[in-house]
Design brief:
The chain has 367 residues and is α/β, with parallel strands linked by helices. It is 37% helix and 29% strand.
Amino acid sequence: MALFGSKVSVGIDISGNMVKLVQLGKRGNDIVLLQLSMTKVSDEPLDKMEWETKAGLIANAIKKVIAEAKVKTKEVNTSVSGSSVVVRYIKLPYATERDLRNTIRTEAEDYIPFNIQDVALDFQILGQVKEEGEEKIKVLLVAAKNELIHQHFEILKMAKLVPVLINVDTFATEDAWSLSGEGKEGVVALVEISNTSTNINIVEQGVSCFNRDAIIGGNDFIEAIQREFNLDFRKADQVMDKMCGILLAKKEEGGIPEEEEQLTEDRVSSTLERVAGRLLSELNRSFAYYYTQSHGGSIDKVVLSGGSARILNLDKFLSNGLGTQVAILNPFARVKIDPNKFNLDLINRMAPAFAVSIGLAFRGLVG
């Protein structure tokens, strides 16, 4: 890890249907918000598109947020996620970081479900442990398919940007949580709800120890509204925005569908609750698996992030079902923000959606 980070850093989250940009600066001991921008990539779900079409739309959206934020640098931090990314926690015979870097590909073959020649690998030594008298190291291993990395490079190249750091969404969110000033004591489950999946990253005493992706995300909520009320994806997405407590467009501007007048809040809530119930089941399944690995233990707190974390009362619903405290991440909690430059109310309401992008920008500052 670098001892000194740059004074200005840009994080761009391009993993969902919204491109989100955060530029942070460091002034003394303060982290300062310099620029913030977001835009929708498409009114249609990206996971249903051919890659070339999707790439062009994302690149155009990146250009738009760069222009709106008046960001001059071409160097950005970004991240990857999804089924082409694998996170493993393994134990290996004791080795120094330098020695392990020379042997990690051989060591990783038993743990990675892809051809080892087809992935980019990175690792972090988490600590040491003695097992049956033998010194071992605990290692966090991350592998991403080269094809996915190449696609990210291509999109950024189309937007005339250069990636200086490629992280994984789950660890960018962990960096955002760290920046927010949350204490590192106890066991915390960081739950990031993206468009197509939900990542569960369990952190013990500030160290990641368990990671799982559940195939349920924000699009599942939108598609449930589509089916229940026979709406297209765009209009269902607008209903979701309202249920997140943020009415981004007024009826007279043509943004909110006329059909919404016929939607009762109770009916929409019950529709979303069915999807939330599936999410709850996935969390319970993940936590049960974690408990078997940790020989008991308990999760002290769940922290939600991602755009769908803003669904009204989702935190309370999950808290009741899990029997555990559930909070919504505000990654801007300790960031200095100029109220004359930014809409603080909007930032606070949209905060959990910016977790990945602010985590990426923060990582660029601290190294």
